[in-house]
Amino acid sequence: MQLRPNLATGLLAATLLAAPAAAFAWGDAGHEIVGTLAYQRLTPKAKKAVDALLAQDKDALTKPDFVSRATWADKFRDSDRNTTHVHYNATHQWHFVDIEIDGGTLDQACFGRPALPAGTPASQGQADACVVDKLVQFKQELADPATPTAEKTLALKFIMHFVGDIHQPLHSSDHHDKGGNGVAIEAPPSKAQGNLHAYWDTQLVQKLGSTVPVAAAAVAKLITAQNVALWSSGSIEDWAGESNARAKDTAYNFSGEKTFVDDHGGVGEVLDAQYAARALPVAKEALAKAGVRLANLLNEAFK
After folding, report:
1. How far is CA 119 from the centre of its chain?
2. Separation between Cα atoms, residue 268 and residue 255, nearest integer Å
3. Cα–chain center distance at 164
4. Helices (H) and strands (E) in the chain, counts
5. HSE (side-chain half, CA atoms, 13 Å) at 49
6. Burial state string for 5-14 with b = 16 or more CB within 10 A and e = fewer than 16
7. How far is it, in rounded angstroms, from Cα 67 to Cα 31?
8. What is the CATH number of the domain that holds 57?
């Protein structure tokens, strides 16, 4: 998993807690798991169309294969994060939909849901837009034969990443804490301080397997015919609602957890084995859903 900001595991708490509101979901490994599962489920027609778009794409921010391109939107956003901030400012809000868990609404989290101006490519749309609305916009472009190849390629790469993002519970929720970035945590046996968002982005994924193929195989066991039928219904808005519900009942559920005083004098949460036992199945199912739904979206776009 990865947070909204491009946070690496093991950073000091001071760095983590100062991170901006935008972060990655699932980190590279999580997005690559989603990409692995989705690519396996593409129809021959969709796979041919996707492969053709990626084959002509000369962007060097990631490797050119489907699984690697699932991480591209993070790389693009952060490509000028420490310099001009053009890409960062234009796209960092697109990675999440921070619905407050104590009464927030989708409209509030999506900046009032402004319409994309007529004639404007989705890749050039407003900076203040949420992941729900960007997925809808890019999905429409991908399915439209009139969309220019360059824009269709961008739509594909954003979709491949954003479907993963929306399924990370802390990318679809907030508790006045930047989606968990402001919640200091310790995860025993380590005494290193991190934040809640980073824990969900990376540490839980690491528990699924030592490599992406191993973890993807573990997650794939959840992709039964019954689950596929269940997960294939509902809208993109519904996906955000599901993730928000998981944040309420699991990610922000610190029942029984000990607390500690963090490096800033605030209260942090000790995420013990019981918390991990509650959280890991939720993260695993979210990755499985994302893989199935990404494949469904692409299969529909290229039917």
Report:
1. 28
2. 13
3. 4
4. 15, 4
5. 20
6. bbbeeebebe
7. 8
8. 1.10.575.10
SS3 (DSSP) at 302:
coil
List, for residues 25-77, the tens digit of each pLDDT value: 568 999 999 999 999 999 999 999 999 999 999 999 999 999 999 999 999 99
Q: What is the mean pLDDT of residues 190-217?
A: 95
Q: Is residue 4 part of a domain?
A: no
Task: Kindly tell me if the per-residue pLDDT of 271 is higher than 90.
Answer: yes
Assess contact for 111 and 129: CB atoms under 8 A: yes
Q: pTM for the complete prediction?
A: 0.91
Quick one: the chain helix, strand, coil %, rounded to 5? 55, 5, 40
Compute the average pLDDT of residues 164-190: 96
| 31 SS3 class | helix
In sequence order, the 6+-apart residues with CB closer than 8 A to the CB of 190 are none
Residue 291 lies in a domain: yes
Structure tokens at 226: 């019954």
Which H or E run contains 251?
none
* Domain range for 91: 13-301
Q: Which DSSP symbol is given to 174? A: B
User: 32 in helix, strand or coil?
Assistant: helix
Strand order, beta sheet including 184-186: 193-195, 184-186, 267-270, 259-261
Contact, 111 vs 252, CB < 8 A? no
Strands (E), the chain: 184-186, 193-195, 259-261, 267-270
Please check whether residue 291 is in contact with residue 34, taking contact to mean a CB–CB distance below 8 angstroms.
yes
Number of structural domains found in the chain: 1
Secondary structure E strands in 55-204: 184-186, 193-195
Residue 112 lies in a domain: yes
Q: What's the pLDDT band for 263 if we cut at 50, 70, 90? A: confident
DSSP string, 60-86: -SS-SSHHHHTTHHHHHHHTTTTTT-H
Residue 2, pLDDT score: 39
Instruction: Evaluate whether residue 2 is within a structural domain.
Output: no
